Amino acid sequence: KIDRLHAAEILDSRARPTLAVTLTTADGIRVRAGVPSGASTGTREAVELRDGDRTRYGGQGVRSAVAHVNGEIAGAVTGRTFASAADLDRALIELDGTGTKSRLGANAVVGVSLAAWRAEAAVAGLPLWQYIARAAGTRPTLPVPHFNVVNGGAHAANSLDFQEFMLAPLGAPDLPEAVRAGAEVYARLKSRLATEGYTTGLGDEGGFAPALDDPENVLRFLVDAITDAGYTPGRDGVAIALDPAASEFREPDGRYRVAGEALTSDRLIDRYEEITERFPVWSIEDGLAEDDWDGWVRLTARLGDRIQIMGDDIFVTNPVIISEAVGRKVANSALIKVNQIGTVTETLDAMRVCRDAGYTQMVSHRSGETEDSFIADLAVGSGCGQIKSGAPARGERIAKYNRLIEIADENPELPFGLPWLDARTA
Ligand code: PGA
Ligand code: ZN
């Protein structure tokens, strides 16, 4: 039973306003949730409400979303008893009434949903990850962290077109060792960049943002850093995952601009194939733009039996869009972001659609984050086996990795990693 629901306007990691939602239950349990926010967003994402009042935060304020939580949503849920957090999510979806949460604001709705799941877990006396696993009917697993150590695209001021270059310690024996590998390679990468005269300033997700243009040059740095740190580049040690976020560098004529060259979808797919032959890249997210579905079919046919082909902007954690993609053989994996769809319940629905279709999933942060670590519990509870939360640096990124370490430490019986890796991409 909800006794009090309250939102406030706080800051995210990019100094932009976002919401903190506090929920108090009748038995005196009090929880809090912070709302994330993206920069390279998909056009079909649930709609974040911004005030547009230029005299405050350049129009980015979220007072209207805050007012919706404290007014209409609090009015509808306070004093009511919900059998589960999923029931409360359904009430929120109904109250908003739009398919995209545009009336109350996806940022308002997701804050309440995250708080509700945390509160229900506390009422049930379970850690959040265990409550999620029980609700979803999944087998809890500690995920392989994917550390975004070089930032480009919409996340950095350099001229690098690909947005994310991630370290994936697939060969690590356990979660703490995976974190150690990420941190050690990150440190080696920093020295290498500095030695060769590149800046080691950080992008939005804590990765370095050097003035490198060609993705292949970045990949060379990564492989060297992995070796410097004493690990084996590849799936037995530390592999690499890419998120080019290709919607961001697609030209109006449909071609993709990479390091000054304009490439058709097929030429870009050739480039990816070459990259996977030369470098230990095991996963490519948003390799093509969100509206290039025909290109995605060809990309999946060409590389989908060797590597993970993951959809982010194209799927926006939407179970309906993912179902359509399954039917058209688009991708073999989905990135999962709670605020893209707006509630935890719909997020778990999207993950179920993936599981039923044999699509892998990776739980993800946003480039704008708070210290909230909900996604660490979501990744463990859903059993999906992989998470990305930026570099092993910056407090809002580390909060998630440290929560994973805490869960691993308290639950030595939990399995770690990607049990399906060999079957999918042998
Ligand atoms: P965003 O980027 O949070 O800025 O949308 C993350 C991603 O593209 O995966
Ligand atoms: Zn992405």
Automatic annotation (TrEMBL):
One of its GO terms (cellular component) is phosphopyruvate hydratase complex. Binds a second Mg(2+) ion via substrate during catalysis. Mg(2+) binds at residues 243, 285, 312. InterPro entries: Enolase, Enolase-like_C_sf, Enolase-like_N, Enolase_C, Enolase_N. Pathway: Carbohydrate degradation; glycolysis; pyruvate from D-glyceraldehyde 3-phosphate: step 4/5. Substrate binds at residues 155, 164, 285, 312, 364-367, 388. The active site is at 205 (proton donor), 337 (proton acceptor). CDD domains: enolase (cd03313). It catalyses: (2R)-2-phosphoglycerate = phosphoenolpyruvate + H2O. Catalyzes the reversible conversion of 2-phosphoglycerate (2-PG) into phosphoenolpyruvate (PEP). It is essential for the degradation of carbohydrates via glycolysis. This is Enolase. The gene is eno.
